[in-house]
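4.2 Preliminary Data

To establish feasibility before requesting continued support, the project team ran the inverse folding procedure on a target of 186 residues. The structure was first converted into the token representation described in Section 3, and no sequence information of any kind was made available to the design step. The complete token record follows.
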């Protein structure tokens, strides 16, 4: 694919790759998951350590700056955070830790970070949410959280129904979607 923003983990001079190739800097790592946004990538190793690379214009890699990153770099999560699950949206990233906390960074223009505002955040910041999280997924400008209570919570751009609540509303905080209660969400 195209890697002009560094999302393939190669130097910019190698901005295109037409066949699967190992990513320099991840040799010897046991990578167990990978997720991609529009042009940024996050991978997680077997120990729950994340590495990010690629487009970082909104701070979606969580490094405290907005420069693109062309090689895998350890995510700047708070000390002791072990990643259980990670998802990338268009220009944001959401992490669920093994203790059920949620951390987000990147573009917040539609409330997709869940912090209650529309601000970009260039460092991972813990989300104040009333439930421990089990899983997270991201769309381009929205985020979906599955709680350990087996309920679904959404935030972000919902003007065409992405929030799943039957309304055309956007939310800047994770909002419980009661219509999905009892649907067997695991």
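Position-by-position output of the design step:
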């Amino acid at each position: 694919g195209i890697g002009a923003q560094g999302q393939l983990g190669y130097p910019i001079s190698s901005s295109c790759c037409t066949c699967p190739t190992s990513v320099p800097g991840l040799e010897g790592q046991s990578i167990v998951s990978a997720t991609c946004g529009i042009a940024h990538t996050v991978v997680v190793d077997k120990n729950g350590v994340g590495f990010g690379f690629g487009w970082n214009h909104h701070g979606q890699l969580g490094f405290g700056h907005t420069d693109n990153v062309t090689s895998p770099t350890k995510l700047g999560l708070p000390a002791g955070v072990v990643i259980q699950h990670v998802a990338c949206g268009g220009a944001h990233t959401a992490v669920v830790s093994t203790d059920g906390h949620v951390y987000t960074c990147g573009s917040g223009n539609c409330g997709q970070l869940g912090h209650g505002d529309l601000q970009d955040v260039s460092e991972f910041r813990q989300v104040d949410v009333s439930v421990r999280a089990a899983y997270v997924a991201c769309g381009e400008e929205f985020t979906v959280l599955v709680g350990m209570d087996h309920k679904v919570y959404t935030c972000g751009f919902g003007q065409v129904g992405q929030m799943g609540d039957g309304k055309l509303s956007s939310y800047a905080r994770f909002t419980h979607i009661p219509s999905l209660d009892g649907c067997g969400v695991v």
